[in-house]
Amino acid sequence: MLHILLVEDHAADVMLVREALRTSPIAADVIIAYDGEQAMKILFELNYKPDFILLDLNMPKFDGFAVLERHRARGGAPVIVLTSSQNPPDKRRALELGARDYVVKPAGLRPFIAAIHGILERWSGETASPIAVV
Predict the structure, then answer these.
(1) Phi, psi of 29 (to 5 degrees)
(2) Does residue 5 sit in helix, strand or coil?
(3) Rounded to whole angstroms, how far apart are CA atoms 24 and 99?
(4) Per-residue pLDDT tens digits for 86-115
């Protein structure tokens, strides 16, 4: 089973990710951080070790770039940026700060779910079991 930290401040996007996980053939559980500060507490104070992190860039308190900077300094799970920003400088900066992938959130339910399923397939590696989350 995959263990994912989702760092996302928009409730609708959290619900979409949960729906994508529910309908994926790859078993996964998710812990939600609603801002960058909460993500840092989960990772470094609670010592949570996810298989990967799905990280939004535009959030209150610490934005995604601040999370990437702190995460890179401490090391840990791969970070996949999941953002609405199509701005090339944002993508370049995120990758320079250590993001392993940069995915622009598609509009619409089906494309969004397909994007999450694609992320799960690319990042599941040997840790995923091919069973559905119930």
Answers:
(1) -120, 160
(2) strand
(3) 23
(4) 999 999 999 999 999 999 999 999 999 999
